[in-house]
Amino acid sequence: MRLRSVNTRTQDGIRSLRTTLQYVLCQVLESTTMSRNYLGHLSERDPLHGYLQHDIQPQINGASCSSKYRVFGLNGSNDVYLYEDRNTGTKVIGKFFRTSRKRDAIKADSRLTREFDNLCMMRNSGLTGRPHHVARPLGRNYSLNALLVTECCEGQLLSEVILEAIHHHDHGKLYHKLTALAYFLSSFHNRTAIGVGVDFHQDCAYMDSLINKLSEIRAIGESQAAELYWLRDQWRNQPRMWQDQQVLVHGDATPENFMFGNELQVIAFDLERTKRADRVFDAGRIAGELKHFFMQATGNKYAADPFIGHFLWEYACHFPNRDSAFQSITGRTPFHMGITLLRIARNSWVEGEYRHRLIGEAIECLRRY
Fold it and tell me: How far is Cα 150 from Cα 135, in angstroms, rounded to an integer?
């Protein structure tokens, strides 16, 4: 993408974007936790302009012969932008898989194909509209730096709801939205169950990669690594970790990848990592993220427990026997919470002292085999 009408300083800013959120909604862009950075307007000579005007916009509100797009940089893990037609107010989200930081064209094209196909697959399963909605893909263009274009929806990020509960004590709203998320995820999972048992070896291999990364950055020593490997094997030997059937999981169930509308509406996006796994891969990650948010903000590692328990209990209500489902799910959750905390701890933005707290809490979770 070229923004020829943007000055050099702004272009440097584009190249340096380090984003942490994706597929941001219009309403959220105005919030304190999610900001948009105006970068300029898209040159009409840029091939992207023609693609948006003639291929994407007609799917929303008809073709326009005089589109002029304002461009905003968003906070996301890839190069993610919002494009707004000044004449019609139409907004779409563009996500580039091939960037100055990720130059491998084959990998970029593969990731684009995977996410586009996953979005279509989950929408075809009925996750459209209310109360469950997966962001609508509007187009993919491999020649434009492996570009995915999706609709721009409206709502509030789960991360924002969590922060409101922490800083403004709006606990009721968080409980309500976790009920909605449990409903969404149970629908996401139950519609895609195939009757094949889970392969817990995959989860163990993922834990190995996390241990290796933490060892490389010297976040853990040999004794901690040895304990983590031992704990991995204890979980591997637990029959309950093998007893459920595979479902499609979101794969990156973080508070930045779910938004809420009114009542029980949930909007999901960023399905690049969707795969077949244990349903608790998603549920446990949400639980681990809640633990992290509250522990980081309050210093109290127990502060999130009521919300975690509520979320898992609400998830279990979508099974014929709620009590047995809850017992089964909570029996597997500590493992996935543990690896979620390890996953967070490996990030470069995590400061040393807090990283050690995350790792310590992860080990405590994993000891509950």
Answer: 7
The CA-atom distances, in angstroms, between 184 and each of 31, 133, 258, 315 are 24, 9, 10, 9
| Residue 309 φ then ψ, to 5° | -60, -40
Q: What is the pTM of this model?
A: 0.86
Report the pLDDT value the prediction gives residue 153, as an integer from 0 to 100: 87
Paired with 276 in beta bridges are 248
Residue-wise pLDDT for 228-264, tens only, equals 999 999 999 999 999 999 999 999 999 999 999 999 9
- Tens of pLDDT along 276-318? 999 999 999 999 999 999 999 999 999 999 999 999 999 999 9
For residues 223 and 238, what is the distance between their CA atoms, to the nearest angstrom? 23
**365 contact partners, CB below 8 Å, separation of at least 6:** 288, 334, 335, 337, 338, 341
CA distance 335 to 292: 15
CA distances from 233 to 46, 223, 230, 240, 352 (A): 54, 16, 5, 14, 28
Q: What are the chain's domains?
A: 8-151 (no CATH), 156-366 (3.90.1200.10)
